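Database export, one record per block. Field names are fixed; values are copied verbatim from the stored entry.
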Amino acid sequence: MGKSASKQFAEEVLKAHNDYRKKHGVPPLKLCKKLNRGAQQYAEELATTRVLKHSSESANGKCGENLAWASYDQPGKDVADRWYNEIKNYSFQNPGFSSGTGHFTAMVWKSTKKMGVGKASASDGSTFVVARYDPAGNVVNPGYYEENVLPPRK
């Protein structure tokens, strides 16, 4: 697999996102070369520092960002499934941001159009995955969660 996220890995993460987004009745995302590049660069930085923390780009709202670490080479679908599983802690009756559901809400955020995926291995074999979203989700303005995080269709 080497250092970087293969096109196949990125496609796998994208497909998992779009399968989940479909359940929530929101439009599919498209991969973006520029977001892929940024996500890849940041994944490599994380693999070097081995500290899982959000980038300055995401902190200042330039993009949304989901991060994942695993002690092994994680498949794209597993990463997406782990993020999505936070749905069990999300209250559609009481929508809004919480640290335990931010990965899930970023994935299904209705107004997000594009994503990028990066993956890098640390010297100990652990892997860091970065997903970037544009426009960013998890916007805490009033009404935004209600409009963008829709309950799954039965």
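Remark 1: Residues 19 and 28 are 8 Å apart (CA to CA).
Remark 2: The first strand starts at residue 30 and ends at 31.
End of record.
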